[in-house]
Amino acid sequence: MKRFVCRKIALVVLGLLTGAISQAQQSPHAGHSNTGPVPLEILQRPVALRTGIGELHEKVSTHSPEAQSFYDQGLAYLHSYVWIEAARSFHQALRLDPNLAMAYLGLTDAFIGLRDVSTAHATCERAKSLVKGMSERERAWLSIRESELQFLEDTDNPNGYGAYRKAINDALKANPNDAWLWIQRGLADEGNPFTHGQAGGVDALAFYRTALALAPGNLAAHHYCAHAYENMGRSKDALEESALYARMCPAIPHAHHMHGHALMRASRTEEAIGEFLKTKELEESYYRSEKIPAHYDWHHAHNLTLLAMSYQSLGQMKFAEALFHETFSSPGYTDFLEYNRKCWPEFLISRERYPEALLAARELTKSEWPLARLAGHTLAGQALLGMGSVADAKEEMTLAERETEGLPPRAIAALPYPTTLRANILLQQKNTAEGEPLAMEVAKSIQAMPGPDAWIAGVFELESIAESARNAGDWELADSVARQMILHNPNYAGGHFAFGLAAEHAGHSAEARQAFAAAEKLWGKADKDLPELEQIHKELAARR
């Protein structure tokens, strides 16, 4: 089975991650193949025209007004990452006009979103068979999709990327006022079609802003601008764009989730939770009404993970635990989703529930994807360290390092695994000369990851490093990482708690008291039996 490298995937986690994406094997079915994660029966189900999903329009070659309407609906779903409904809408358009080539190209884009590249190739070929009925502009889109798919076969090939971008630039020369082409140019700037607007930066933003100058109400451009602003750290702009996007698409789960992203990054955590809960409500209502199992929707587990992390940041561990466990209980159908199941054993390790964490990590080591196995072996090693089994932890580290051999260097550089485990083992063995630089290297890479998912996950990863340093008796490192936690997110109580512990150990009573008081205030709505809070109460009472 051929593997594809995804340069930047939006982590549910939580950040942008490099991963290996599996290409589905091709088999014929009703004119094109589909052996991807979502059954073709679901993707071909008839669908009605919907409201509340936002309005998008792209004139295509059809004599059927209804086919045009369903094509536009597919477009709206496509640019909000609702891949299943996008595919259903494009299929509905083809029922009304079997010669609508652009609907096949819409399906191509939807199947790329579903990580089903072989079916994307097949639908692109169907569009190509209808080229005689396409306008010059539509033929340009066919060229763009063909070059995009060729690039997906080898994303490390600069020639492939150049050809993909050239196809867009050539189309722009012929149609410089076409907002959709400027949006596609922004997507291409991300360097990989799988990211689909989630990994844009300053250059991509310029293309999206150009599209908005030509089509001010284009929700796709507003959506992608919000992501770009997030990745650039422009939180205020991201908040404004995501709020506008949510107003434009009140029935779209991702629109509310997107605004939750921005609210979370602005430390308006309770409001973010409200948006994530709204997303959850919309999704679960959709699954019930359409009789579609939740595990076929990639977005559901992603939203639950961010919701769980938001609760965790407030110290509401009971809510967080239930959600983390729910996401872990649903195996992923891509390496991205499977990898993100790591959040459950990570949470268990943070709560010092090492035997449970070891069991969960062991399950990940049996995954078909190396990325998930890498996380599983690393977290199994972390759990074993917590249980005092250094020798067994070393064995897990060896297995984790073996998993890295099949992954691209870019992937390893972007991941905290297995370097975190190696650093922790070195610290446990009192080898600070080697352990401290490794731990600081991991901390630095964590803070450099763009996007709100990585931002909220990062504070918990830093917290884990600080705890490992304390457990190893390296209080200098514990103090340094605690300070970085506060800089990373000054509104997270755990950072102040970690700093208070380090200050207390150093004999800095005034600093410790101030840090504990800050943590107590920030954990004002935490679980009443939160152990950290109970410890703070005791420490502050002893100083009164």
CATH topology of one domain: Serine Threonine Protein Phosphatase 5, Tetratricopeptide repeat
C-alpha Rg, in Å?
24 Å
Helix content: 55-70%
Structural class: mainly alpha
The helix/strand order is: EEHHHHHHHHHHHHHHHHHHHHHHHHHHHH
Please state the second-level CATH architecture of one domain. Answer: Alpha Horseshoe
Largest sheet: 2 strands, antiparallel
Low-confidence stretches: 1-35
Mean pLDDT: 90
- Shape from CA axes? elongated
Descriptive report:
The protein has 28 helices and 2 strands. With 544 residues, it is mainly α. It has a domain at 1-21 and 315-456: Serine Threonine Protein Phosphatase 5, Tetratricopeptide repeat. Strands 1-2 form a two-stranded antiparallel sheet. Strand 1 and strand 2 form a beta hairpin. The longest helix has 22 residues, at 269-290. Mean pLDDT is 90; it is low at 1-35.
Question: What's the arrangement of secondary structure elements?
Answer:
Blueprint: E1 3-10, E2 16-22, H1 40-43, H2 65-78, H3 83-96, H4 101-113, H5 117-129, H6 136-152, H7 158-174, H8 179-188, H9 202-214, H10 219-232, H11 235-248, H12 253-265, H13 269-290, H14 298-313, H15 317-328, H16 335-339, H17 343-350, H18 354-364, H19 370-386, H20 390-404, H21 409-414, H22 419-428, H23 432-448, H24 452-471, H25 475-488, H26 493-505, H27 509-522, H28 531-542
Antiparallel strand pairs: 1-2
Helix pairs in contact: 2-3, 2-4, 3-4, 4-5, 4-6, 5-6, 6-7, 7-8, 8-9, 9-10, 10-11, 10-12, 11-12, 12-13, 12-14, 12-24, 13-14, 14-15, 17-18, 18-19, 19-20, 19-22, 20-22, 22-23, 22-24, 23-24, 23-25, 24-25, 24-26, 25-26, 26-27, 27-28
